[in-house]
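Handout, section B. The chain below has 279 residues.
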Amino acid sequence: MKNFLAVFDGYNLCKSTFEYAALLAKKSDSRLTGVFLDAFFYHNYNLAKVLRRSSNPEAEMKELNEKDQLKRDESVYQFQQLCEGAQIECVIHRDNSFALDDLHYESMFADLIIINEREKFTRHDDQAPTGFVREILADAQCPVVVVPDDFKAPDKIVLLYDGTPSSIYAIKMFSYHFSGWQELPVEIVTVNEGKMENGNLPGTILLTDLINRYFPNSNYNILHGNAEEKILTYLIESGKNELIVLGAYRRSKFSRWFKHSLADVLMNGLDKPLFIAHH
């Protein structure tokens, strides 16, 4: 049985994360692990403000910490109840150390992570995709599904292919996880930026053989132009609730400071779930 991690801020059970996680767990007959990142230094109140303004900061912090604990406990209870109602086998992990380190470590033993694109595990504002999500995508040891705020059951699977090992790896990982997801149409999308000879897909024969084995009822679509622009425009205008499969996120931190990945572009421009996998 596969083990999928549904990742939550300890103070807030993200509704769309659970809904997508429940769907994916059922499609693959997987166990769902609710990972509640309760870092010991992460509070639901402004610690500096309490220390600065309170006449009795120790007593006030004790009261606020108790309220925080109740809120975290309520999130865990809600997750358990939702899993029971959906008839999904589940377990709970409450990590109280450093959120990134804890999740990176857990990913070594998991098959998939599901996380909302806006999860930030801090009281400070951060735009999607947040710095936390980017770090998870760069260093996770298993595929990651990044989900939007609103749940929409996928009615189509789009596999993004650019001829690289990462795009093939992502396609294979998706097929391994969801071999039974045969009722949805599957489309392989690639972009000719002027480098394809005769407009042919790179590795056409081997790619066709692989796709026919995993997705026999699929079709191909070759776009022309700038890859990021054409893919984003195509998916915006599709009118479908696609689940998009792509690879090639892992780059150096230095590189990520100056150049967004395709995943960043799609998270910013779309309201659709992304299945992201890399070596």
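Note. The beta strands are 3-9, 31-37, 90-95, 112-116, 144-147, 156-160, 186-192, 218-224, 242-246, 274-276. Compare this with the example in section A.
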